[in-house]
């Protein structure tokens, strides 16, 4: 019977498995893994700096502000968010002139776009109007009808000079494609 009493002494052996738990160095290893988790939190904070116009909302008039805007409803009038981003969602229908730092079109826009940085028309997007921006991106499948005026950042005074140069560049870029097709 001494041996059964020695069996309670075997719980002393489970103390040895506690040593592997004392190898809690794996826990600090998971702690650096938890450090990237706070990184997405600031991204969520950036998202909270964006106002949203929902699907069922209709706004007629002037929209101004100092935060980014996501439009999934209808807006008629003008949108002026100079230093921010305006995104027209897939359900968004906008009949307005838009002035912003960056404009992304996923829905339908009828109006002129002026961006200090870039305009991005995605594959499901539709834009009828002129674009004035430093950069523009039009994905395959997107609809665009209007003119493009590419302006370098900070060259707002050279409006007349930059327009003919860009039209010439656009024409020269369009001409070689048919010429290449004719050569082939």
Detailed description of the structure:
The protein is α/β, with parallel strands linked by helices and 184 residues long. Helix content is 32%, strand content 39%. The protein has 6 helices and 12 strands. It has helices at residues 2-9, 15-22, 26-34, 40-48, 159-174, 176-183; strands at residues 50-53, 58-64, 68-71, 74-88, 93-105, 108-110, 113-121, 126-128, 131-133, 135-138, 143-145, 148-150. Strands 1, 2, 3, 4, 5, 6, 7, 8, 9, 10, 11 and 12 form a 12-stranded parallel beta sheet that branches. The radius of gyration is 29 Å and the shape is globular. Residues 9-46 and 156-184 have low confidence and may be disordered.
Main attributes of the structure:
disordered C terminus; alpha/beta; about 180 residues; 12-stranded parallel sheet; about 30% helix
């Amino acid at each position: 019977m001494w041996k059964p009493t020695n069996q309670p002494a075997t719980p002393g052996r489970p103390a040895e498995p506690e040593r592997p738990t004392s190898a809690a160095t794996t826990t600090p290893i998971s702690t650096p893994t938890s450090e990237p988790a706070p990184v997405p939190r600031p991204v969520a904070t950036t998202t909270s700096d964006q106002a949203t116009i929902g699907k069922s909302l209709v706004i007629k008039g002037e929209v101004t502000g100092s935060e980014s805007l996501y439009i999934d409803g209808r807006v008629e009038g003008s949108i002026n968010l100079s230093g921010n981003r305006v995104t027209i969602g897939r359900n968004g229908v906008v009949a307005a002139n838009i002035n912003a730092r960056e404009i992304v079109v996923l829905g339908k826009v009828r109006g002129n776009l002026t961006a200090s940085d870039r305009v991005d028309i995605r594959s499901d997007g539709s834009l009828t109007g002129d674009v004035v921006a430093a950069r523009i991106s039009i994905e395959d499948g997107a609809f665009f009808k209007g003119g493009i005026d590419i302006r370098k950042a900070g060259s707002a005074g050279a409006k007349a000079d930059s327009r003919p140069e860009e039209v010439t560049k656009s024409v020269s870029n369009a001409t070689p494609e048919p010429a290449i097709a004719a050569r082939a």
